[in-house]
Structures are given as structure tokens and as C-alpha cells.
Amino acid sequence: DTGVSQDPRHKITKRGQNVTFRCDPISEHNRLYWYRQTLGQGPEFLTYFQNEAQLEKSRLLSDRFSAERPKGSFSTLEIQRTEQGDSAMYLCASSPKQGARVTDTQYFGPGTRLTVL
Amino acid sequence: AQSVTQPDIHITVSEGASLELRCNYSYGATPYLFWYVQSPGQGLQLLLKYFSGDTLVQGIKGFEAEFKRSQSSFNLRKPSVHWSDAAEYFCAVGANQAGTALIFGKGTTLSVSS
After folding, report:
1. Distance in Å, alpha carbon of B47 to nearest chain A alpha carbon
2. Who among B41, B44, B96 is closest to A101 (CB)?
3. Rounded to whole angstroms, how far apart are CA atoms B88 and B28?
4. Which of A41, A42, A56 is the closest to B99 by Cβ?
5. Tens-place pLDDT, residues B57-112
6. How many C-beta atoms surround the C-beta of residue B107 within 10 A?
């Protein structure tokens, strides 16, 4: 399998601009996650998709954030009206289809580093 | 509240020496535990995981971890560290359900001296 890929790897933007990140999960992985990692911290969960359905969202995901996975394959994460506090690494992970009572093993992509000036 | 604590922010170990990275968790149900490693500019790579069964689990790159329920710990060990092991290590806990959000510790940075 090729791994999880994310694009772009780096993004520099000015405050107030909109940005969009893309994640391509491992082929046939039906579960997809977004996390945010700030300097000196571990990743923090943002949202989760099973196929095209967004099943869980963290309170960290403010109204300025939106995520989609329209065909159950790749996903996009958009941040509107960026703020300096949005500067972070945005990580995507995917996991294979398993039973509902089985914990996932999540495989992470390289991340997109966002810098908001 | 669910949480993961990695008490050591930064550890330096001599090459060839043994390593133990500490992880303590707070979780109301049966925890599912993971160790990931992150090299500069890279994503997280899974080292090992514990779901059930034998409390000593083997992972990649010669790492192992031991689950101790009585101490709420899941410490990572390696008998002989290589310079290429220098990286940041994260412990994480998840629930036994689909779509679990992993809760990560703040990480431990490992430096390896020659």
C-alpha cells in the first residue's frame, strides 16, 4: 500500500485568507481522521469520517473549519478567515474497515504545516 | 477526563544504551494503547499497539512496551538505542469502538549522543 498522502506539505497565508488542504487515505480505508498538532503538543482530534459521513466533530472545530469527504475517498479540510492561532500541523489519518466494536489502528500522513502571518 | 501523561519532555541517551520512555494514562474503560514516533518533518509512524492479551507487546525497530493496569502505565523500551532513533515519541489511548479519537500525550523528545 502507498501511505496516506497530504497536499500541500506547507502553506503560508495571510490572516483572513481561506485555505484548503487535501488528504488521500490508504486505498480502501473507509475511515478518515483529521488532527491538529501545535508546537510542543501531541496531535488533537478534529473530526472523523466513515466513508462519506462525518460522524464526529471536536469542539476544536470552530465554525470557520469545514471538512468534506464527498465520495468516501479523499477528504478536504477548509479553514475560512484564517487567524494566527490556526498556525499548526494538520494531520490526516486513515484506518481500514473493521467491525464496529474493534478499535482502529490509524495510519498517519506527513501533515500540512500551516503558517498564518 | 481521559488523558495521557508523558512525564519526560526530553531524554538524552548514549548510543547503545537502553531506553525507557514513560507513559501514564487516565481512562475509565479498558484502554487501547499506542506508541507512535515522529521524525522532523514527518508524520506519525506506528511503533506498536496494545489491545488485549499478552501485556508485553513487540513493535517495529526493536521496541517493546509493557501494559501495567495497576500502574496505569504503558512504558516503551528498547535494549540498545541507535542514533537513528532520535525523534519525538507519542503515547496515545483510544476507546474500543469504531472511529475512536486517539488522545495523545505531549510527547517525549529523544536525543542520542555518541
Report:
1. 11
2. B96
3. 27
4. A56
5. 999 999 999 999 999 999 999 999 999 999 999 999 987 566 678 899 999 999 99
6. 24
CB B2 within 8 A of CB B102: no
Closest CA to A84 of A9, A12, A34: A12
The amino acid at A23 = C
pLDDT tens-place string over residues A53-109: 998 888 888 899 999 999 889 999 999 999 999 999 999 999 887 665 556 688 999
The reply to whether B98 touches chain A by the CB within 8 Å rule is yes
- Residue B56 and residue B78: Cα distance in Å, rounded? 13
CA atoms A101, A103, A105, A108: torsion sign: positive
Residues in chain A: 117
- Contacts A91 to B, Cβ<8 Å: 43-44
Interface check A90 vs B, CB under 8 A = no
The alpha-carbon gap from B30 to the nearest alpha carbon of chain A, in Å, equals 11
Rounded CA separation B19/B89 (Å) = 12
Chain B nearest CA to A91, separation (Å): 7
In chain B, at which residue ranges do the beta strands (DSSP E only) sit? 3-5, 10-14, 19-21, 24-26, 32-38, 44-50, 56-58, 64-68, 73-78, 87-94, 103-104, 108-113
